[in-house]
Amino acid sequence: MSLSTDKDYFIARPDVVLRSAPGGGAARNHLILGDWLKFTGQTSERFVKIRCRGDVGWVLKEEVTEVRALEVNFVDIGQGDGCHIVTPDDEIILIDAGVGSNMERFLSWRYNLRGRNVKRAPDFDPEKAEKEPWLIDYVVMSHPDNDHYFGFEQVFQNPKLAFDKVFHSGIVERPDGAVDARLSYPDDLGGYVDGNPKMLWDVVHTNKRLKEITAEFPRTRKQFLSTIRACFENTKTARFKSIGKKRSQLEAGQRVFFDKFEGSNSPLAVEVLGPITEPVTHNGETRNGLRKLGSESVTKNGHSVVFRMTYGKLAVMLGGDLNTQAQNFLLNLYAAAPKKTSKLEDNIAKLEAEGDSISARDQVKLDKYRAKLASIIDAGRRTFQVDVAKACHHGSSHIIDTFLAVLNPVVTVISSGDRESHSHPRPDALGTFGKHGRGRRPLIFSTELARSTREFTPIIKYLELLRDFESRLEAETDPDKRTEIERRMQDRKDRNVAVYGMITLRALSDTIVLAQKLEEPRNPGAKWDLYELHHNENTGMYEYVPH
């Protein structure tokens, strides 16, 4: 491969130390698989000089590739979920954004938005070259719980960003109020058609219908509608669409893919496994509705968008806030399980508790139940088994063991924050993730734990740095210098969000790494805590082999 200063390149190895001289010298930075870099034009035998992560130094030429990796960043957005994906074709997918500003700060840091000169932005400088807003290709709002979607309001309000396609589960929170006396309105998700089960009637599938609802309630305090309105105000051409799978498609064995990501022209495919819509008829009209799984919270969480993303031999599950009711429902549909697999688990546990005193009759029952459970797991793995799973509902206890056994991941990633009333991740959930993880030593990552290692020293240093910025800002009288101090202070806040707590997955061909930034680097060449997965050709699965 002949390198050019005009092209983009990437790190080709799990990790590489950037050094001050060819073949040696001081460590300048620690680079990982897929990091973007530029070639400076200088070479020395087998070595090339590059610019990467803000530093310039030397690496082996064979440690550089022109092929972009798949990058999946589980952003530390505090309480909630937030995932940033860059495809091998350099397209951006955002799945959820938490409840606060962290996703917006991450994007500002990642794409240097504070230094981007966009005409419609308040800091636009007509003396500098104008740039278009940075385009986010895909946004996915997995379900209408504000710790997943409300962070998008600040993302959508950033004038230096623009948006193309926005996908959602079809459940749209709107003000209460009956509009059809023949429907029941137990919550604010739209009317239900009575039956067994009750079905949510007003599932919003089209961009046109969503615009009608936002126009109908222009002053609503509902955060979901205000978030959607912010996107329309930012990018008038943005297109909203529900995403899911029809029950008829599932029963016919048809696969449904996210937009164009069907895997035919790329190693990347994103299959849609949920939510599952079902036909419901009301007043002579039939629509694709969603069944009522329980309370308002249970229903909207349970009908989260569920993706199974594959890249070559790697499989990743992204499942919003799937709860016990939803997992029972999905196992029933995909694995011919009884309506409540969780009840089958309870029956097995009750009989196993009898120990050696179990009767012959109960032993027959136990054997029968175990065989049924084994068949459910076997059938479910044909659809759901993955190598990496984003833990549903932030490590909540609202899970069933069988669903985790079906996922059978070697890696589980938990996104959770500091809202103590939830206490996520729950101790029993952590134990269950480990119990049903694949391999001798399955990996469990947590954005909260990654951020909390030696927590107090980095936080104190960070707060001292902010106080220094604030004192300099207060003392400065020159407007231009004040603006520069403010920009640098915001950049530091953005970087703090981006660096601490984020879990990153990188995949290039069969090379797979997961990494988290060390809060206290051992040296400039050891900044990452990195784990590599190896593909076992005998089992056909990835595994983690501890050193």
Automatic annotation (TrEMBL):
Hey, what's the signal peptide range on this chain? none
Q: Which SUPFAM superfamilies match?
A: Metallo-hydrolase/oxidoreductase
Domain Metallo-beta-lactamase positions: 84-156
Note the Gene3D superfamilies from the entry.
Ribonuclease Z/Hydroxyacylglutathione hydrolase-like
Q: Identify the domain of life.
A: Bacteria
* PANTHER family in the record: DNA INTERNALIZATION/COMPETENCE PROTEIN COMEC/REC2 (PTHR30619), RECOMBINATION PROTEIN 2 (PTHR30619:SF1)
**UniProt name for this protein:** MBL fold metallo-hydrolase
Provenance organism: Parvularcula maris
Q: Mind giving the lineage of the organism this protein is from?
A: Bacteria, Pseudomonadati, Pseudomonadota, Alphaproteobacteria, Parvularculales
